[in-house]
């Protein structure tokens, strides 16, 4: 388990889990090596974190929430709720955004 501190307001954590082949080295610049360990085959597993400006997520015409096993929008109305958003970036990368969810008020 690796603890990753919250990013400052208006920033996000970009966290990478890297698997290096035996003999490969890792030079971390503009980020922090949080943890690494040697694998059975001589390779290395590393967790690297980089704090970035909060990305702008473009609105999608086809985006729609998916609720878990019969849950509904009403199940999200509680303090401390969080959402995981899975997306594809225009550069071919995929991302997972973990974000607090603010309760919606009537008329919003």
Overview of the structural elements:
By secondary structure, the chain is mainly beta. It is built from no helices and five strands. The chain has strands at 11-20, 32-38, 44-53, 82-88, 94-100. It has a three-stranded antiparallel sheet with strand order 1-3-2, with no helix packed on it. The protein has a two-stranded antiparallel sheet with strand order 4-5. The termini are far apart.
What distinguishing features does this structure have?
108 residues, elongated, 38% strand, single chain, two-stranded antiparallel sheet, 0% helix, three-stranded antiparallel beta sheet, mainly beta
Give the SSE order as H and E letters: EEEEE
Output the structural class: mainly beta
**SS element count, helices:** 0
Strand order in the largest sheet: 1-3-2
Q: Give the tally of β-strands.
A: 5
Strand content: 35-45%
Uncertain parts? none
| Estimated radius of gyration | 18 Å
The N- and C-terminal alpha carbons lie at a distance of 38 Å
Short description:
With about 110 residues, the chain is mainly beta. Helix content is about 0%, strand content about 40%.
